[in-house]
Design a protein that fits this description.
CATH superfamily of the largest domain in chain A: Aminoglycoside phosphotransferase (APH), C-terminal lobe
Number of domains of chain A: 2
CATH architecture of the largest domain in chain A: Alpha-Beta Complex
Largest sheet of chain A: 5 strands, antiparallel
Number of strands of chain A: 9
Structural class of chain A: alpha+beta
CATH topology of the largest domain in chain A: Aminoglycoside 3'-phosphotransferase, Chain: A, domain 2
Helix content of chain A: 40-55%
Radius of gyration of chain A: 20 Å
Largest interface: A-B, 33 and 33 residues
Oligomer: homodimer
Shape of chain A: globular
């Protein structure tokens, strides 16, 4: 939850009046989004979201993120659409920050996804992957294997203060992944952060995908692995194979996973678990106690990592033989 | 900024469906309000605010607050109106908290009020005071003189860690106020917390008043004194007599201040400054460093208190002789 940057009355007024969106009638900070400041903007026509990009987002990446949303929306993927000002600019500046006004997307994120939500997500994820295939821009995933090593170097000295034995456990896993990681799977644009709070539903049907600020080009199946972790475990740490099956089957209705992708899924799921274990550990160690952000529990992802370490086949995720 | 209470999907759905307000299309936490959790609720018809009352609000006071909003709205004061569910209840429960759904009020709060905003506020304040005259319920101001003594007792041991010499300075002021405080001024319902973030404007015209959760029965001129402090000082600590004059003159267009009220204004302004100096000091000393709330600076109100200590007549606030 976060509003990091205050916007003065005059700046806001000048900013909004440069768009053809009607008269401003309301402006409220939203307690969502960990990376950026988000405001809900109402005009006499409709609501919008105003995002001010804070330091964790690199300004040079913004054309990729905003261009991707435009690309996807043009291909029928329900996602926020950047609004262009009277001069045709989607990326602007406000209060000394890069800023963008984007369309407001109806929908509610679910806190505890049910089977039908996992299925809806699986279908949407595959459609997103297909729609991204002809996106012309490219951005490296800086939270893939080399990034994990760098994060490990940052946290290793203090990791055991977070969870006893964590340093060794991460080091061992990282060595394993560095030995076996692959790079020959089908690639494309991945979202890389599809947690339930980034997916909207209306009457339990998928209604939209938001927050593309980790999107990048990488193996498509890595996105599937991130979703397995974020959607198919219960609050008590148990893996719900029924949810995983629903998600993967719905995905495959739209885009068939290759045999190599399927065979790699346990390894990718370990990598995806390690990625969030590392960033959560890093955030816990580096978040000022006064920060307005709730840090997330690294333990949750350590348990998920251990689960995937014991998995021997994609069949353990609920899929039958292909 | 705050969302303290998480609402589960099922609870929210059941809650909203008990109102005749259409189908839920969006639900977002708002980064506003220090006391309660606030959510912006969109339905296919219109937006609403859902407030969950947290521990600082006494449940037994809620009928007063909600009843007051209904009373004022019926008398043409622009303020949020509690929505009644199908059984006619305005006060409900959600996620184990008292909760109310209220209408969404268009408008923007100004961060740095201009003269015209101060005038708009002055007029609105007087109309609010007049509209409250026949409100049948009553609630004591627990942040008046006896409450300040209690707060002083709570903070005195640590006050000097906040500002050196603060304990003595508060003690001296409190003695002075206890000796000279009065109780024979015109009384009625006061808002008691009219800071710029609780007042909305549209195109620089007053459009509404929100956040009645400190409202109580007390001397009307005390509300005027709170506004003098909250609206008529500049960021550099200087008093802007032009803004004060604009506010007071606009107030008097609607409700003439009595000679006794005018004569008491410097004393009331001291009391109002002490009240916020005390609560800010208390909050600073009692807010967990992990809290998701930005504490406000007590120094600002110490400077305002010192300003009013040097004032000898209401004429120093910009009003001429009556």
């Amino acid at each position: 939850m976060a509003v990091y940057t205050d916007v003065s009355d005059e700046e806001l007024e000048a900013f909004i009046s440069s768009y053809d969106i009607g008269t401003l009638t309301s402006f409220k900070g939203i307690a969502e989004g960990v990376e950026n400041s988000n405001y809900l903007v109402h005009t006499d026509q409709r609501p919008y979201i105003l995002t001010l990009y804070e330091k964790r987002v690199r300004p040079e990446d913004l054309p990729y993120f905003l261009g991707l949303m435009e690309h996807l929306a043009a291909r029928g993927i329900s996602c926020p659409l950047p609004v262009r000002d009277r001069e045709g600019r989607a990326l602007r500046e406000l209060a000394g920050r890069p800023a963008a006004l984007i369309s407001f997307l109806d929908g509610l994120s679910v806190r505890r996804p049910a089977i039908e939500h996992c299925a809806g997500l699986g279908q949407a994820l595959a459609r997103f992957h297909l729609a991204g295939q002809d996106f012309p821009m490219s951005r490296e995933n800086d939270l893939s294997l080399p990034g994990w090593r760098a994060l490990y170097n940052d946290v290793s000295a203090s990791a055991d203060t977070v969870i006893p034995g964590l340093k060794c456990e991460i080091a061992r896993e990282l060595s394993h992944l560095e030995k076996h990681w692959l790079d020959d799977l089908p690639r494309g644009v991945i979202h890389a952060d599809i947690f339930p709070d980034n997916v909207f539903f209306l009457a339990d049907k998928f209604s939209g995908l938001i927050d593309f600020y980790f999107a990048c080009n990488d193996m498509l199946a890595f996105d599937v692995a991130v979703c397995l972790n974020a959607w198919c475990f219960e609050a008590d740490g148990s893996f719900n194979i029924t949810k995983a099956r629903a998600m993967l089957q719905a995905y495959e209705q739209e885009r068939k996973l290759t045999e190599t992708e399927l065979a790699s899924l346990p390894l990718l799921a370990r990598g995806a678990a390690l990625r969030f274990l590392l960033t959560r550990t890093y955030d816990l160690l580096n978040t000022d106690a006064n920060a307005l952000v709730k840090t997330k529990d690294p333990n949750e992802y350590l348990r998920k990592l251990r689960f995937h370490q014991r998995v021997t086949s994609y069949r353990d995720y609920g899929l039958g033989n292909h």
